[in-house]
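Incident log, support desk, overnight shift.

02:14 A customer reports that sequence design results differ from what the structure should imply. Their input is reproduced verbatim below. On-call engineer (initials T.W.) acknowledged and began investigating.
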């Protein structure tokens, strides 16, 4: 279906932004967005921006089904109204927030191993295999997953999962509140929002939730990279404290600009797909 294609395309186009974000959050060699982009392009060519993309593409259908499935079913239980009845009897913002938090909490566990592998691969700065140069530590997503499993056991695949869960539980609540709030604002009562409204509301929901998620996103990415060679942090709190000590409070907003630029189109398309699917099958 065209919407699925657009969703995948959104992810592909958004991935270079995500790679720059992850590098800015976890490496100190870059002075800013432009410096990071120039360095990636010079050392690793255009392909450098697309490292670690295959697992997010492969897992997005599952992760989004958990997120939106849990959200709409929790809303169903909380409000006892079906999707069709919901335009006439809109759910309260408290219910929307609680359903969003539940969706965020459960999707975080599905997302954790895929996200870990993505971040590890995005952070490999080696250029594509050149004769004589040492190969990167991970040869691809499956090799990366197998190496982590072998070296650190199954729990290793969940490194950073706590920070990810803490990041996603409240911020996915914010995601759905922003989306619903904006849709209601711009839609006449009792009607379905137009496609343009869905796109704009979805885009701003992406930005608002990602701005709120950035502090824990930085900590999550750092925890995921910890232990690659030796363990630096004792835990999440230690990671927060030493990051702030070394880099100041600004550390909590590393990558926020580039991530917002990514969040708008990706989530605009995500919500458009969700609304269409609900109207067909709801
Ligand atoms: C702030 N957070 C964690 C969220 N809003 N999560 C919901 C889905 C985000 C979407 N898959 C994306 O990649 O932007």
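02:41 Re-run completed on a clean worker. Output:
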């Amino acid at each position: 279906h065209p919407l699925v294609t657009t969703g995948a395309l959104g992810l592909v186009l958004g991935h270079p932004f995500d790679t720059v974000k992850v590098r800015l959050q976890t490496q100190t060699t870059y002075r800013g967005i432009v410096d990071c982009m120039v360095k990636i392009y010079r050392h690793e060519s255009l392909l450098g921006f697309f490292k670690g993309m295959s697992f997010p593409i492969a897992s997005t259908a599952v992760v989004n089904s958990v997120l939106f499935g849990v959200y709409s079913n929790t809303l169903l239980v909380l409000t006892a109204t079906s999707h069709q009845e919901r335009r006439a009897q809109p759910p309260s913002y408290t219910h929307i927030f609680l359903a969003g938090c539940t969706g965020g909490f459960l999707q975080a566990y599905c997302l954790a191993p895929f996200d870990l592998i993505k971040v590890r691969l995005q952070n490999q700065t080696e250029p594509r295999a050149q004769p004589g140069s040492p190969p990167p530590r991970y040869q691809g997503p499956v090799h990366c997953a197998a190496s982590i499993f072998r070296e650190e056991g199954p729990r290793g695949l969940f490194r950073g999962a706590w920070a990810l869960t803490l990041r996603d539980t409240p911020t996915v609540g914010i995601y759905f509140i922003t989306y619903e709030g904006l849709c209601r604002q711009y839609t006449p009562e009792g009607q379905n929002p137009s496609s343009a409204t869905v796109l704009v509301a979805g885009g701003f929901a992406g930005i608002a939730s990602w701005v709120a998620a950035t502090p824990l996103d930085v900590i999550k990415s750092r925890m995921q990279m910890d232990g690659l060679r030796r363990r630096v942090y004792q835990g999440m709190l230690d990671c927060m404290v030493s990051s702030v000590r070394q880099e100041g409070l600004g550390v909590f907003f590393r990558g926020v600009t580039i991530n917002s630029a990514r969040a708008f189109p990706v989530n605009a398309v995500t919500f458009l797909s969700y609304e269409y699917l609900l109207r067909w099958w709801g």
